[in-house]
Design a protein that fits this description.
heterodimer, A: mainly alpha, MetI-like fold, two-stranded antiparallel ribbon, 15 helices, 2% strand, B: alpha/beta, D-Maltodextrin-Binding Protein, domain 2, 2 domains, five-stranded mixed sheet, 13 strands, globular
């Protein structure tokens, strides 16, 4: 007796490749959004930087002309120097945030209230922080100026002096940034393995040795994120510079992001092409850090 | 009968349709300070009363933010009427075709006669691009009571001014109040120094890029200015102060003079000064015999080329240009009407300003309106730097020359 064997059903292309296609389909909405709102504008900015355009009329092609001009521009180098200052000094927020987090990591009554108060600076808008510090630094009625006058007898207007203004703004920026890093570390401290600490205590480890060899390595993920966030914050620092000094006095507190805004979008800024070129330079600087972070994260994913 | 009723209905429909279309105009402006805001509210109310079919939808922006917002909304969402400034300040928008040519409004309403003093600052390529409605004088406002107490006569020449400053400084009073954080007050100082040392034509040539900043005549201006900067005749730390923040020093008697526009009088009075404590003097003569030109920045209204209701917008411009509207507007603003048929103001400072401007050898629009935007920004930064570091004069002039070579190519 012969049984009729039906020919094998030929599955459609989609059904055959479903497993390979599924990840891409899930990623598609995100990828499309990312392309439209991040990649395409980056490409457009790079494209605009090759033109001489006032933002209103016709754009003329000048190739690398904007970049050549940038090499000779003192304001560009001042902005670059200020960005480096921001980057280096903003890193102070990481140990400072860690210090405060360690301090707040106790079970005293009302500790939640204190944690909220310490976190408060990060919650308020950067513009408000900038305004408050401007009044704090003001030469005639500011608290800091009054304090310095009481101690040394001479007035110092921090934001009017091109030697100190950048440091004054960075100090204002550190206030919310330390709060942010503190919260990251508080979360990290909550996730520390208590058994490791028990074991270390039984080996008579205490104080700084306990901190350095046991606690800090376990905070590595939190430190990584804190550094990422701090670097991004330092390179992006537009709000404070804009509110506190408008890039002054005479451009000495300019950073690249503010210079780009001044050239392309502000009241006296009719140079879209040049502003875009500055934006591209800022992007390339950030790419250095982004590449470093992403390779670290991929390595961790692979090993973890 | 049916045809008659149909035609009647059609007629009624046409009538109602025309009243539905008779419009609304959208007006964008930047009168966020209290006196200008009140003046605008009055103007809009009067316009709507005189033109019952038209309503004005007014979008009032913050004064400083408007200067960045205008380039956006002219392209993305143009109103029917927009406020802006005259001269080189409106040139980028005119060259990009964002403003409507309103030469017909000028001709239809005889504005070439009544608005003659500001006509040249509204003209580019022989066409008119907007309507001016107010201007104001700049000059040195001084504490008349402090001058009297110190035995100082209002100076008429440079030598008298420097002597007065020395006397005030010796008495522990800062001669000049200024707030350079927003940069533009330095432009007023440079304008007057240049107009008095080198004259109106040279200043116009300099701001239109025909003269290099390394020219010895420009250096002469800075050298003269250094006679006020080096001995410290300006208040300390002005680079951290906005012009409003420098005001308390003038009101409290810690500073005796303030080179500013007439809009400074209202805050001075609000701060507690009485009218007889404030004096006005024209910026003194520097080069002997040089005819005196003045800064008289002009505020204007324009029609964006993308406006939807240009017809009613033109009616608004014609209304703003009229003598009565300008009299009323400037009464509240405390400034001078451009229309020469408007009633002369009865305020002591405006009267002084009126005669100063009427006899001026030329009217400059202010450094950040006469010079193109990039040059203005670099220039004013240079002036601020000079006021803090006068020893860097040569380096500053060299930097300004570099910017000029690029901007005016």
């Amino acid at each position: 007796m012969t049984t009729a064997v039906s020919p094998p059903v030929q599955l459609g292309w989609f059904r055959r490749n479903q497993i390979k296609l599924a990840p891409w389909l899930f990623l598609a909405p995100g990828l499309i959004m990312f392309f439209i709102y991040v990649l395409a504008p980056i490409g457009q900015s790079i494209w605009i930087s090759f033109f001489d355009w006032d933002g209103l009329g016709k754009a003329t092609w000048i190739g690398l002309g904007n970049y050549v001009e940038m090499l000779d521009d003192t304001n560009f180098y001042i902005s670059l120097k200020n960005n480096l200052l921001w980057l280096v000094l903003y890193m102070l927020s990481v140990p400072a945030g860690l210090g405060i987090a360690l301090f707040l990591n106790q079970n005293v009554v009302g500790i939640r209230l204190y944690k909220s108060l310490f976190f408060f600076p990060f919650v308020i808008s950067q513009v408000v922080v900038g305004l408050m510090f401007t009044w704090f630094y003001a030469p005639d009625f500011g608290l800091l100026s009054g304090l310095i006058q009481a101690i040394t007898g001479s007035k110092v207007a921090i934001l009017a002096d091109d030697r100190y203004a950048t440091y004054g703004i960075i100090a204002a920026g550190l206030w919310p940034q330390i709060a942010y890093v503190m919260i990251l570390y508080l979360t990290g401290l909550n996730n520390i393995n208590p058994e490791q600490i028990e074991a270390a205590r039984m080996d008579h480890a205490k104080g700084f040795a306990l901190f350095w060899h046991i606690i800090l390595p376990q905070l590595r993920p939190a430190t990584f994120i804190a550094v990422v966030v701090t670097v991004i914050g330092a390179l992006r620092s537009f709000d404070l510079v804009s509110i506190m000094t408008h890039g002054g006095p005479y451009g000495s507190t300019r950073v690249l992001s503010y210079y780009m805004y001044e050239q392309a979008l502000s009241e006296y800024g009719y140079r879209m092409g040049y502003g875009a070129a500055i934006a591209v330079v800022l992007f390339l600087i950030m790419m250095v850090f982004i590449t470093f972070f992403i390779t670290r994260m991929i390595a961790q994913e692979r090993n973890g | 009968m049916f045809i008659k009723r149909l035609s009647l209905a059609a007629f009624a429909l046409a009538l109602s349709a025309s009243t539905v279309l008779a419009g609304e105009i959208v007006l964008n402006s930047d009168q966020s300070d209290p006196a200008p805001k009140k003046a605008m509210e009055q103007l809009i109310a009067d316009f709507q009363a005189a033109n019952p079919g038209i309503t004005v939808k007014w979008n009032n922006f913050d004064h400083e933010g408007y200067k960045s917002a205008i380039n956006n909304f002219l392209k993305a969402n143009p109103p029917d009427v927009a406020a802006w400034y005259a001269g080189n300040r409106m040139a980028p928008q005119v060259k990009a075709g964002l403003f409507e040519d309103v030469t017909d409004v000028w001709e239809k309403n005889g504005l070439n006669d009544t608005l003659k003093s500001a006509a040249s600052s509204m003209t580019i390529d022989g066409k008119k691009w907007g309507v001016p409605y107010t201007y104001y004088q700049w000059g040195i406002y001084y504490r008349a009571d402090i001058f009297k107490a110190q035995g100082i006569e209002p100076p008429k020449t440079w030598a008298e001014l420097v002597a007065a400053c020395a006397k005030l400084k010796a008495a522990g009073i800062s001669p000049f109040a200024i707030g350079t954080k927003a940069l533009w007050p330095t432009g007023g100082w440079f304008d007057y120094m240049d107009l008095r040392v080198n004259g109106y034509q040279f200043h116009m040539d300099l701001t239109s890029g025909k003269v290099p900043y390394t020219d010895p005549k420009v250096k002469a201006v800075f050298d003269k200015w250094a006679e006020l900067v080096k001995p410290g005749y300006y208040i300390e730390n002005h680079a951290a102060l906005d012009w409003q923040d420098a005001m308390p020093q003038f009101v409290q008697g810690k500073a005796a003079m303030y080179l500013m526009g007439n809009f400074v009088v209202a805050p001075m009075k609000a701060g507690g000064l009485k009218e007889d404590q404030i004096g006005f003097l024209q910026f003194p003569e520097i080069t002997a015999g040089m005819p005196k030109a003045e800064d008289a920045p002009t505020d204007t209204f324009h029609i964006p080329s993308g406006a939807k209701n240009k017809e009613d917008a033109k009616k608004f411009l014609a209304f703003v240009a009229s003598a009565d509207a300008q009299t009323k507007l400037n009464n509240i603003l405390g400034q001078l009407p451009v229309n020469n048929k408007s009633a002369k103001p009865d305020d002591k400072f405006l009267n002084a300003g009126f005669s100063v401007l009427a006899n001026a050898a030329g009217l400059a629009q202010f450094f950040d309106r006469d010079a193109p935007a990039d040059m203005a920004k670099a220039g004013m930064e240079g002036f601020q730097k000079f006021m803090v570091h006068p020893e860097m004069e040569d380096a500053i002039l060299a930097d300004l020359e570099k910017v000029r070579a690029r901007v005016y190519k």
